């Protein structure tokens, strides 16, 4: 891995599905790849249709609930959601936020993956993009979904997870704690479990995002496991929150 490389770009270069590279290398979260990390690139499978490569996403993918959250000592988080109004799940998404001055001159631009791999039909997944050295001020911004592909029906991504008994409470003025139970409501066992907690203010803007990896190795069908997440709140108080979870089907 070199600086600027992403799993999507590597997959497109070698004409191999990103999910296949992820599986061969045991990558749970492609956003945590390190510069200098060596990857095994599998050979393209014969007699199969060419896998889809990430392309600019059609209008059904939209950015909403965007909020800019200042961070000491000077950074800015761009927080929001990717909403999927189509009838198909979408994965391999890339979100970009750009900042401009009053004349339209580009001041800064950053891109990132959403906090979960798959955005289900009619659903939304939050994202968090950090500007380490943002401009002192900006007059305009643009938020785009740069890329994404329909999720293969044969994917290992597993969405049949339900959060229940969820409770949220402020620990103090800057921390909000959410607890609950995660149930596997599907028919398969699941591993590499991740829970995403998103908090909103009274204007329904995203004000905090936290993703946690659950320590359980495998969650069997119909089984439950507890989860706990603490959010850092620097601005408006939490009015509502959502809890989502995804994992990989055990094969």
Question: Can you walk through the features of this model?
Answer:
With 251 residues, the protein is mainly beta. The protein folds into three domains: 47 residues, Roll (Membrane-bound Lytic Murein Transglycosylase D, Chain A), CATH 3.10.350; 90 residues, Immunoglobulin-like; 93 residues, Immunoglobulin-like, CATH 2.60.40.10. It contains two helices and 15 strands. Strands 8, 11, 12, 13 and 15 form a five-stranded antiparallel beta sheet that branches. A hairpin with a 2-residue loop joins β9 and β10. It starts with 6 loop residues before the first helix and ends with a strand. About 3% of the residues have low confidence.
The description of the largest β-sheet is:
5 strands, antiparallel
Give the name of the CATH superfamily of the largest domain: Immunoglobulins
Helix content: under 10%
Measured between the Cα atoms of the first and last residue, the distance is 28 Å
Alpha carbon gyration radius: 19 Å
Predict the CATH topology of the largest domain. Immunoglobulin-like
CATH class of the largest domain: Mainly Beta
Pattern of helices and strands: HHEEEEEEEEEEEEEEE
Tell me the fraction of residues in β-strands, as a range.
over 45%
The helix tally amounts to 2
User: Any idea what the shape is?
Assistant: globular
Overall strand count: 15
- The low-pLDDT segments are 47-53
Tally of structural domains = 3
Question: Which architecture name of the largest domain does CATH use?
Answer: Sandwich
